[in-house]
Amino acid sequence: MTTNDKKLTTSWGAPVGDNQNSMTAGYRGPTLIQDAHLIEKLAHFNRERVPERVVHAKGAGAHGYFEVTNDVSQYTKAAFLSEVGKRTPMFIRFSTVAGELGSADTVRDPRGFAVKFYTEEGNYDLVGNNTPVFFIRDAIKFPDFIHTQKRHPQTHLKNPNAVWDFWSLSPESLHQVTILMSDRGIPATLRHMHGFGSHTFKWVNAEGQAVWVKYHFKTEQGVKNMDVNVAAKLAGEHPDYHTEDLFNAIENGDFPAWRLYVQIMPLEDANTYRFDPFDVTKVWSQKDYPLIEVGRMVLNRNPENYFAEVEQATFTPGAFVPGIEASPDKMLQGRIFAYADAHRYRVGANHNALPINRPHVEVNNNQRDGQMRFDGNGGASTYYEPNSYGGPKESPEHRTTPFEVSGLADSVAYDHDDHYTQAGDLYRLMSEEERTRLIETIVGAMKPVERDDIKLRQIGHFYKADPEYGTRVAEGLGLPVPQTV
């Protein structure tokens, strides 16, 4: 093992005091924009690749509609959810996370599940994955995490040393690692997987009453996964397998559909629930907060032009409509900045004026100029607010509902550090055949790691989740379970 005395610094040379936790107003935030290290780190990260997306580069998309099937107006005043039978046009983009634009569809990777609803109150973007949790829970760690999934700067090869070193030093990743390495890590098609909003959000009804909410899209096609050997064969012979399958299904009239459900948590429960409800590495038990049906999403039209629609589609978890708001989830708070900033860089400041992103309602704001301004640029209308010339005004009734914050402004971690219970519960839910495939996948992924101390550290995490889990991985790697666990 090697040690050094080098200090991590910002790009302007100042030492970084905390690179694990973003600065928040109290333990639950929200995240403070004064955290210059976080802002600079995310903004620089968004500009590391030209011109494809820095993550989720390889994707497929489709148009469709969302139809409300259950009255949820007691929870949210969002107009597109206001009445049973109401239909809203939408666009979805599925994607892998780590690979480049030309990478294979059938690799082991989470899948992006990004939905844009063209509502009468503006666009609402729900930008999630096909997993209910994520690897990290603070956006300040996201550039580092994605670096480990990308290529080594010298060899330009994937680097299992970096992958497992980071995961073993970030035990909060264990739940998502277990999902990724399980059968669910390679879906059979994009049609045969669930989707999740992953984060906790806030719903607010017409009376101003709020609840916390999580989204679950359940595929009507049934969940089907792909054997690792078949996936490897297709990656070489047919790297666009998922893209073609989705296109052909829609073209042939076999329209994929998902049922949207939500979990609802009263605001006050957030202070007493056994897991922090804003920690995106954790799930809420469906026994505690049962699924409530909301509606049905159907994909029934393919894009006419891939670049204009799929490649130029931009999604941000900060695109809310009245009745839907953010929670203090630290990962969500960082993504609200980072995604929109990535689009301003990659597509341009006027990306929301492109046809695929343009709202289906009138847009009135004072944003002017910028590269590739291709509309009327606001004409001769007023270009500032407040004004005395009849320009658009703010609507106080649409202010974000307040929530209480407390504590010192500081870089702090979540105050719940149980990273093992839910991962262990998931392991114990698997059949013996599923566990065997999980262990084989993990062992195969960890064998190329050069340093035993990294392997042993990760084995310790598996063991803490479930002794059998850790022991079987250790045996597969020919290593002992560390005595410290």
UniProtKB/TrEMBL annotation:
UniProt record, GO biological process: hydrogen peroxide catabolic process; response to hydrogen peroxide
Keyword Electron transport attributed: no
InterPro entries on file: Catalase (IPR018028), Catalase_3 (IPR040333), Catalase_AS (IPR024708), Catalase_clade1/3 (IPR024711), Catalase_core (IPR011614), Catalase_haem_BS (IPR002226), Catalase_immune_responsive (IPR010582), Catalase_sf (IPR020835)
EC number, UniProt record: 1.11.1.6
Domain Catalase core positions: 9-393
Chain intervals for the UniProt region annotation (Disordered): 1-21, 366-400
CDD domains on file: catalase_clade_3 (cd08156)
Catalytic residues (positions): 56, 129
Cofactor: heme
Positions bound to heme: 339
MF (Gene Ontology): catalase activity; heme binding; metal ion binding
Catalytic activity: 2 H2O2 = O2 + 2 H2O
Protein origin, superkingdom: Bacteria
Alphabetical keyword list: Heme, Hydrogen peroxide, Iron, Metal-binding, Oxidoreductase, Peroxidase
UniProt entry tagged with the keyword Heme: yes
An annotated GO cellular component: cytoplasm
Family classification: Belongs to the catalase family.
Descriptive protein name: Catalase
Lineage: Bacteria, Bacillati, Bacillota, Bacilli, Bacillales
